[in-house]
Each structure stands twice: as structure tokens, then as C-alpha cells.
Amino acid sequence: MKGGIRGLLLALVALLAACGDKPKAVTSQQTTTGLELLDQNWDDQDRQAAWTLSFGSRILPINWFLALEQAGSKRLFSANLARFGFASAGVSPRNPDGLPIGMTVTPEHQGRQWVGLGCSACHSGQVYHGGHTLHIDGGQSLLDFQGFEKALLKALEATLDDDARFQRFAKATGEAPAALRPALEARLEWLKARAALNATHFPYGRGRLDAFGQIFNAVTADFLGIPENRREPDAPVSYPVLWDAPHLDLVQWNASAPNAGPGPLVQNATTTLAVFGELNIHSPGQGYDSSMELENLGKIQDLWYQLKAPAWPEAVLGAIDRPLAEKGRALYQANCQSCHALADESDAKRELRAVPVPVEQLGTDPKMASNFVNASAKSGAFAGQKMLFLAGPTLGETAPSIELVLHAAVGALAHHPLEAMQQQLESLHKVDKTPLNQRPFDYKARPLSGIWASAPYLHNGSVPTLATLLSKTRPARFPVGKVEFDPKSVGLSSQVLDSRQVSFFDTSEPGNGNGGHDYGTSLSDADKAALLEYLKTL
């Protein structure tokens, strides 16, 4: 019997692997909203799935979200989400309400479907040039997460404070006002408590989030019910590009997460808890009940595994000078390739390695790595339990915050063990097996495929262009968001296209340092131009 089960599992793995090898008819195209889509090895079905699949994020019930008006206006809150950096591809069978890319809807739970954020909300980019809007799947989002959260709270408060507004809201939702008001009040309090938990002295601005800081707070302060565990999540980093991430041995900016075996499943479970997710550590049965949409985690991981980096679109951004780029190739090999290995994007099963580099060697802003290393908290109800729920060392009265997060994520998966195993099989891909980074006061160097499409640069988004990254003089302040792309310098220009969709990055604020990574800064101007031209080809 055991042999039969093992054979069945092996056959399933082989079938899943074979499914990933099927060729696709993938071409560049334009959406009805004007987004120009590049060939990244996703067909229409893949894109729609990646844009809409929910991993369990819950902000508001869908009927509430669609009925909510903006504070100070009768205009619907959902009518202009572009102001926060969301991109829209229009209505589709999988998205009948025309929600922005990455805004997801859960299956029905206890009579409700919930709107939340999915992977594509934070990992989709837009490049603006010459009237074109290039959509980059898996790219670096320029989302204003804190701005969105703040405006949502104001809209909900305005709805409850104005009876005429509330009556319009009740009519649009189709719910009885008497039951709706206390339910809306309760949800507002939950969202306000979450926002207060993650309040910061300095706004993140567009394109950044302290994801580790927020998940640490969610687990150690909220789910464990220990308010004093709360720490200000004040080390925002850029949303990393995802086209090579599933192929790497180590992920996260500080190379803190191994990617082999169940690594991706645990990481996706962790993301669920961080992004408007819910967890009950006192739920009955094995493990912890959560809002996780477990049946989607394997599908999501497999989709991102298939994605490849976008090629430089010469029709929009200009032709690459091939002879000059060829000169840059030798410069890249001499100055960059020892850390930033080349990735063959045509190899669907490429296995890539990240290079952890000590912060003191890089010289870049240390705050993100320092916060991670130094984060610890009271273990509360987790004390005395295994770090990985059923395995690993025992958690003490206090523990590193990341260990408490791992316990919570694995505990959520253990609540549905058979489904978790199935999702692990569905997302199973071979990557180099690398042990847990024992010195996470590092930042990782990754392959630079598609580097042209991931401005601004460095882990904290503190440098607007590749040209300024190669310069000894970098701007102290620059606009981020809807700005014109600079093909010559490769990155964000200072030309603002819409001031309502821009924030200004200030390198004087804590965690925003733009120093370090001095590699290539001593090259001649001619060599820098050649290197930049080569980087466009990656």
C-alpha cells in the first residue's frame, strides 16, 4: 500500500512537471485600458489567474467595497484606485467588477466574499514613456500602500458618521441597516487597529513596504495578543521583482529564506498572514485556523515559476546599440558577474543562486537587515512549542520574531495537512538546496534579468536610475510613481506625469540612505555607457 501511494505521488509530480513544459502562444498585446503587455511567458489565462487568485487577504466584503464612497465625495472609492498606484486591465470573466490588477476576491465564506490584495498588487510595475504605459508582470510596484490604507479608513469613518451616506451604502450593499452598522463598525475597528499597529513616523512613499516589520507585528503583537511586542515597521524596502525568485536558492532582500522543499509554501502562507490576513491561535483541532486560501497557494507559486523577465522593448524605448552593448558585456563580466550571475530566461527550469553580501562590505543602508537580526519578542502561547509546529527547536519565553512567524505560518498549514501536502506537490520545482543563512546581516545579489524594468534601485529604492547607481553623486531627493522613464539613464527621470500619483523619496530619512554599492563608479564615462547598454539586454 505504501509503495502504491509513493508511486501515485511520483506520478503526480511527473504530471505536474510535464504540464509546465507545454509551449504557449504568448505575444505582446494591449488591454482595453491601454496597458501594453510584454511577452513574459504568460498567456491570457495565466495573467488573469495571477492577477485575480486570492491567497486569503481580507479587507472588506466585496459588496461593501463596491458600495463604499470616497470621503468628502459621492464618488465610489473603487472608481479611481489608480491614485494609489493600482493598474487596471478592465473587466474580464475572472474579474467581472473590473477591480485593479492584484486586487482579489475570495470564494464565499459564511455568506461573504472578501476583497483583498494578491501577489500582483505589489509585484506588478508600470513603465511610462512617450505616451506608452508598459505593464510589467512580476515587476516592482509603485503602490502607495499607506496612502491606500489611510484613505480607506477615512471613507469608512465618513460612511458611519453621515446617516445619508450610510443609507446610500446600505441600499447599495443590499443589507439591512440595523445589522449592517455594527458589522461595519467592527470591521473599521479591526482595520484601524491594524493601521495603528504599523504606524510609522516617516511615510513609506510609493513602491515600498516594510513587509517583515508588519508580519512581525501581526504575529507577535496581534495574533499572540501581546501589545508590547509591537515594533515600528520603519525599514521599508522596494517590492522585489518575481520573475527569477522561484528559481533562486535564497529569497528575501537579506537572503533569509531558503527556497527548496516547502520553502515557497511557507513563504506564501506568511504573506497571507501579513497582507490583511487573519489567524486564530486558539482554534480547535490541529494547527491554527486562518483566512488562508490554501487551495490557491500551489497554483500561485507555479504561475510565478513560469514567468520570465521582460526584454527591453525597442519599439517603445529605442533600439539597443549592439556593438556598444558587446563592449559592455566584458565590463559586466569583470565588474558585476561574480555577484550578479547571468540567468538564461529561455530555460524554463533554470536553477539560480543568490550571493549574500555582508552589509559592511556593500555599504548600503543597514536598517532593514539590522531590524531583522535584532527583532525578538515574547513568545506568549507559543512558548514551549516547536518552532516549525511539529519539528525544530523549542521556543523559549522570548524568541527571534522570525521564529514566531514561522511557527504561526506552519501552524496555519498544519490546520489542513492533506491540502497543504497537495499544494506542496503542485508547486514543487527543483532549486539549489541551500541551508538557512546563518548570518542574515547580508543583502542578496541576484541575477539582473530585466533590471531595466525595476527602478528605483538598491534594496530600499534609494537610487532612481542605473546611471546614478554608477555615479559617485546620487540625488538626495527624486520623484517616484507616475514619472517618465529615462531610456538613456535607465530608470526614473525627474519628469512628473501626474503629481497626484507621485511621492518624493528623501534620502535623509531613516532607512533611506543611498550610499554604498560603489561597484563600477570608478569606470570611465565611455565604459559606463557601454555597461548601461549591456544591462538593457539582460
3D structure, described in words:
- Helices cover 36% and strands 13% of the residues.
- It contains 18 helices and 21 strands.
- By secondary structure, it is of the alpha+beta class.
- Helix 9 packs across helix 10 (294-306).
- Residues 1-23 have low confidence and may be disordered.
- Strand 4 and strand 5 (114-117) form a beta hairpin.
- The Cα radius of gyration reads 23 Å
Low-pLDDT residue intervals, each spanning 5 or more residues: 1-23
Helix amount, in percent?
25-40%
Structural class: alpha+beta
Backbone shape: globular
Give a quick precis of the structure.
The protein is of the alpha+beta class and 538 residues long. It has 18 helices and 21 strands.
What labels describe this entry?
single chain; 538 residues; alpha+beta; four-stranded mixed β-sheet; three-stranded antiparallel β-sheet; 18 helices; 21 strands; 36% helix; 13% strand; disordered N terminus
Secondary-structure blueprint of this entry?
Blueprint: H1 2-19, E1 29-30, E2 35-37, H2 44-52, E3 60-61, H3 62-67, E4 103-105, E5 114-117, H4 119-122, E6 124-129, E7 132-137, H5 145-161, H6 163-173, H7 177-197, E8 208-209, H8 211-223, E9 237-238, E10 250-251, E11 257-258, H9 263-274, E12 279-280, E13 289-290, H10 294-306, H11 314-317, H12 322-335, E14 355-358, H13 359-362, H14 367-374, E15 376-378, E16 398-400, H15 401-414, H16 417-426, E17 442-445, H17 466-469, E18 477-481, E19 483-486, E20 491-496, E21 502-506, H18 525-535
Parallel strand pairs: 2-7
Antiparallel strand pairs: 1-2, 3-5, 4-5, 6-7, 8-9, 10-11, 12-13, 14-17, 15-16, 18-21, 19-20
Helix pairs in contact: 5-6, 5-7, 8-9, 8-15, 9-10, 9-15, 10-16, 12-18
